[in-house]
Design goal:
Elements: H1 39-56, H2 59-72, E1 82-84, E2 87-92, E3 101-105, H3 107-110, E4 118-122, H4 123-130, E5 135-141, E6 152-158, E7 165-171, E8 176-177, E9 186-190, E10 192-198, E11 201-206, E12 221-226, E13 235-239, E14 246-252, E15 259-267, E16 270-277, E17 280-283, E18 290-295, E19 298-303, E20 307-309, E21 312-314, E22 319-323, H5 324-328, E23 335-338, E24 344-351, E25 356-362, E26 365-377, E27 380-386, E28 394-399, E29 414-421, E30 424-434, E31 437-439, E32 456-459, E33 469-477, E34 483-491, E35 502-505, H6 520-527, E36 534-535, E37 542-543, E38 548-552, H7 562-566, H8 574-589, E39 598-603, H9 605-616, E40 623-627, H10 646-649, H11 655-661, H12 666-669, E41 678-684, H13 693-704, E42 710-715, H14 726-745
Parallel strand pairs: 35-38, 35-39, 39-40, 40-41, 41-42
Antiparallel strand pairs: 1-2, 2-3, 3-4, 5-6, 6-7, 7-8, 7-9, 10-11, 11-12, 12-13, 14-15, 15-16, 16-17, 18-19, 19-22, 20-21, 22-23, 24-25, 25-26, 26-27, 28-29, 29-30, 30-31, 30-32, 33-34, 34-38, 36-37
Helix pairs in contact: 2-6, 2-14, 8-9
């Protein structure tokens, strides 16, 4: 990497070499809590945990945890599968196997009510044998020679549920790890990615064995690792600057279209992709904010901002295709596959062998289009609308196996369809795209000769009485006049008297969309929950009712594409918070709830969201549940993977940017003499993405200020999700739900 004089020259106090003022560091009395594993710090955590458990872990919590665990451990839920060769692979956790089983079955068996599973790896047994609390994070198969079965895979195992994984080679035929002494791959635990180049070579981006990391804590280099070779001996083939986010290296082994890629992921939304040609990296010539993907002869482009090419402007959020080799040679002959409008955005796409599936949202309801590149006219590829998407539902289509070697014209053109809604248990279907016309048929000759039109492959069980509830979509008006959609799930006989305990959930960041999804846990823990502790204003009457569940589709998310996300970036972050507050006010104005009955919940970036509800809009809420959150926006870039999110929030070390970041840093917005809502802050020690220290510091500062009813809990394992098995997940969800219910449904609140 080339360095410049500016890399080493001293700069005046509070000023960089380029003359940009450096923001002064505010006084932080809780910085000692940033030592994640320090003895004194963990003693503070244990003391806080005991205090919170004394409050919340009562008989009601125990019953709630058991009910949620029953949902998570249900043996009737859908075992989702991935097809590799002739087998269908699944990872499964339940009461008997809390860490899980990696297993496989055949198509004929999978269609039965009680499939016969061939267990390949028992993670509980592995953890016991090796004395490590392994968490399974997936398997990556080596493409076998033509006609051979899939046999070797690289398995990712996390020692604590965090993002850092140990990658180990596994032989599914012998059901064992390949011995490193015999040449089996076994990479030390670290953040990074692994891709098969060939049977004896991996492409690896990692921070293990002293390989350099970026300021974001991710891999900075890519190497070519051969069998029986140490990482430090591996050939370095790719490197990025330290202040970029991460390096990735990967190989596409599609027969006839083999390509090796390297990605310089500059920040969360900008990257440079290069393809290996003649032993040299050739950067693909696109703006850094244009997302790329490839499939066989095609290269696909999705710009995040308007992209002008040859005098034609392609809008942000559109999807274009071009011939891969032609584009590299300089041709710019695009086919426009999707153009967004005010109501419709592209969420994802998936290729079968010959057809392209587009998953869209139209006002946050799903729409699926099937495109046929073989039938092209002046308007583009032939398009068929898949008639399988009821309103206010989330439906997604993706390929079963785009390289299915089954004989026949439709080989490789099967797709899965996964449909869900707030009151609709998830359903799995399988279809085939044939001659440009999609259907839900399992056609003869495919995977065992099963033939059944409009077949539902699997359905999730019901965990609450969904028929008693209805889903509505409403629109609130934000501070700048923007219409913000939100979903409301409530009893059909909802009484609009302002007395309904209401849980408002949101995210609003990183172009992540919140869509309708079935949750047996929410159904049981919130919608059907009843309380005899709710009283009328004069205390004269007791009554019981369930809760209302609300999901807000605020700016910062991806519900309306890149523009919806960019509207709340960096200096405009306040728009996301104004949107969420507007939804809260609309719920109150419509009589659904009232401030004392309204709570909000969010995790990660959603924790930052509800942290700002706590500090900027405390009058709107009776309780806040804030999980694995960003809260100290002055130091977030120095904690865990925080540096990688500068593109989303801004850089607090630059004074001009700290000036606006401080306006949404909850840790710095706390004030005396404010009536704050009851607050529960929860996190995980092993979270190596956001980290636990921001949550610790926020709780410590609030308690030191004498703010009443501030509770903190830190799981000692489980990573960013806070749960490495179903019991941990049930405990986490139950504690949050129980806190909110006590605070909002009880007359005096959780801490009374």
């Amino acid at each position: 990497m080339t360095t410049t004089a500016a890399d080493h020259s001293p700069a005046p106090d509070n000023e960089t070499a380029q003359g940009t003022a450096i923001a002064p560091e505010p006084v932080d009395e809780n910085i000692w809590l940033e030592d994640i594993h320090g003895e004194e710090q963990l003693a503070w955590v244990r003391e806080q945990n005991a205090r919170t458990e004394d409050l919340l872990d009562d008989a009601g919590y125990a019953a709630l945890e058991a009910g949620i665990l029953e949902v998570l451990d249900s043996t009737d839920r859908i075992a989702m599968v991935n097809k590799r060769g002739e087998h269908y692979y699944n990872f499964w956790k339940d009461q008997q196997n809390p860490k899980g089983l990696w297993r496989r079955t055949t198509w004929e068996s999978y269609l039965s009510d009680d499939p016969e599973w061939d267990v390949l790896l028992d993670i509980d047994a592995l953890a016991a044998a090796e004395g490590e609390e392994w968490v399974f994070h997936g398997a990556n198969f080596l493409r076998p020679a033509e006609g051979e079965p899939h046999r070797f895979a690289i398995i990712a195992l996390s020692p604590d549920g965090g993002d850092a994984n140990r990658h180990r080679e596994f032989d599914v035929e012998t059901r064992s790890f390949v011995d490193p002494a015999a040449g089996g791959f076994d990479l030390p635990t670290a953040k990074g990615n692994v891709s098969w180049l060939d049977a004896d070579t991996l492409l690896v981006a990692t921070t293990a064995d002293g390989l350099p990391s970026t300021s974001s804590s991710y891999a900075r280099t890519g190497v070519k690792l051969r069998r029986k070779q140490a990482l430090v001996e591996a050939e370095r083939i790719f490197e990025i600057p330290e202040d970029h986010m991460m390096a990735l290296v990967a190989h596409d082994s599609t027969p006839g279209f083999e390509r090796t890629f390297a990605v310089d992921w500059i920040d969360f939304f900008n990257r440079t992709t290069s393809v290996l040609q003649d032993d040299a990296w050739l950067p693909i010539d696109v703006p850094t904010d244009v997302n790329l993907s490839s499939h066989r002869e095609w290269i696909m482009f999705r710009p995040r901002q308007d992209w002008n090419v040859g005098g034609t402007t392609y809008p942000a959020g559109s999807l274009l295709a071009a011939d891969f080799e032609g584009y590299l040679s300089g041709a710019r002959d695009f086919t426009v596959l999707f153009t967004p409008d005010e109501h419709t955005s592209l969420q994802s796409w998936s290729w079968t062998r010959d057809y392209l599936l587009l998953n869209l949202l139209h006002d946050v309801s799903s729409e699926i289009r099937v495109l046929d590149p073989a039938r092209k006219d002046s308007a583009g590829w032939a398009v068929t609308l898949l008639d399988a998407c009821p309103p206010l539902h989330d439906v997604n289509a993706y390929a079963v196996d785009d390289e299915d070697e089954t004989e026949g014209d439709d080989a490789g053109n099967d797709y899965w369809l996964v449909a869900t809604g707030f009151t609709t248990p998830t359903t799995l279907l399988r279809g085939t795209v044939s001659a440009g016309t999609p259907s839900y048929s399992l056609e003869a000759g495919h995977d065992g000769g099963v033939s059944s039109k409009h077949a539902v492959v699997k359905s999730s069980p019901s965990f609450f009485n969904e028929a008693d509830y209805e889903v509505q979509q409403h629109f609130a008006t934000s501070a700048d006049g923007t219409r913000v959609p939100y979903f409301q799930v409530a009893s059909k006989d909802l009484d609009l008297d302002g007395e309904n305990p209401t849980q408002l959930s949101g995210y609003g960041g990183f172009e992540v969309s919140r869509t309708p999804a079935y949750s047996g846990a929410i159904g049981r823990a919130w919608l059907e929950r009843r309380s005899e502790s709710i009283h009328s204003e004069d205390g004269s009457a007791e009554y019981s009712r369930g809760g209302v569940y609300v999901v807000a589709n605020i700016r910062g998310g991806g519900e309306y594409g890149p523009a919806w996300h960019r509207a709340a970036l960096q200096a405009n972050r306040h728009r996301a918070f104004e949107d969420f507050a507007a939804v809260a006010r609309d719920l109150i104005a419509r009589g659904v709830t009232s401030p004392r009955r309204l709570g909000c919940v969010g995790g990660s970036n959603g924790g930052l969201l509800v942290g700002n509800m706590l500090t900027q809009f405390p009058e709107l809420f009776g309780a806040v549940s804030c999980g694995v959150p960003l809260l100290d926006m002055r130091r977030y870039t120095k904690l865990s993977a925080g540096y990688s999110w500068i593109a989303e929030y801004g850089d607090p070390d630059i004074s001009q940017q700290w000036d606006y970041i401080r306006t949404f840093s909850p840790y710095h917005l706390l004030r005396d003499a404010v009536d704050y809502p009851e607050t529960f802050i929860w996190t995980a020690t092993s979270d190596d993405r956001v980290g636990p220290v921001q949550a610790r510091k926020m709780a410590a500062r609030m308690q030191a200020m004498g703010i009443p009813n501030v509770w903190f809990h830190e799981a000692l394992e489980g990573g960013h999700a806070g749960a490495s098995d179903n019991r941990q997940a049930a405990s986490l969800q139950a504690r949050s739900q129980h806190f909110l219910w006590r605070a909002l449904a009880g007359k005096q609140g959780a801490g009374a």
